[in-house]
Amino acid sequence: KGFSYLLHGLNPERILIASEAIGLGRAALEKATIYAKERHVFGRPIGQNQGIQHPLAQAWMQLEAADLVTLKAAALYDAGKPCGEYANAAKYLAAEAGFQSCQTAIQTLGGMGYAKEYHVERYLRESFIPRLAPVSPQLIMCYIAEKVLGLPKSY
């Protein structure tokens, strides 16, 4: 049963990585939201424009959805129940949501998104780690396709 124990041990790692990605995304979203409230152009905050509001709102919704899947995966793991599909889905969804939130923060800040004092350029760099490690998004999709949807193994 060694291999099954190994696979079971990877689930909390994926849940942890998902939590990291959500935290990065939330930190970037907070910086961008503050900037959108404080930065005034033509006598009004840039956050008053839907072109700024909508991507930030979308980032928040994606992070919250990823967080719910992550919490479900953690609850299943803590209860000693199988959670592979939820741990993998949480890692995938959180990594993508975290990355998108960081990218949105850079775009919200514009040229200041590259300034070190705002930290969002660092958040964007760090958001690649949950996307790549410890397992690629493509392998997660293969796992979901095979184990959840019952499709034939593709690799």
Explain the overall architecture.
By secondary structure, the protein is mainly α. It has six helices and two strands; from the N terminus they run H-E-E-H-H-H-H-H. The protein has helices at 2-38, 50-78, 84-109, 120-126, 128-132, 137-148; strands spanning 40-41, 44-45. A two-stranded antiparallel sheet has the order 1-2. A hairpin with a 2-residue loop joins strand 1 and strand 2. Helix 1 (2-38) packs antiparallel against helix 4 (120-126) and helix 2 (50-78) runs antiparallel to helix 3 (84-109). The mean pLDDT is 96.
The coarse overall form would be elongated
Low-confidence stretches: none
Tell me the strand percentage band.
Answer: under 5%
Span between termini: 23 Å
Give Rg in angstroms: 18 Å
**How many distinct helices?**
6
Beta strand count: 2
Mean pLDDT: 96
* Global structural class: mainly alpha
SSE pattern:
HEEHHHHH
| Biggest sheet features | 2 strands, antiparallel
Strand order of the largest sheet: 1-2
Structural descriptors:
single chain; 155 residues; mainly alpha; two-stranded antiparallel ribbon; elongated
Give me a quick take on this structure:
The protein is mainly alpha-helical.
Any chance you could write out the topology, listing elements then pairs?
Layout: H1 2-38, E1 40-41, E2 44-45, H2 50-78, H3 84-109, H4 120-126, H5 128-132, H6 137-148
Antiparallel strand pairs: 1-2
Helix pairs in contact: 1-2, 1-3, 1-4, 2-3, 3-4, 3-6
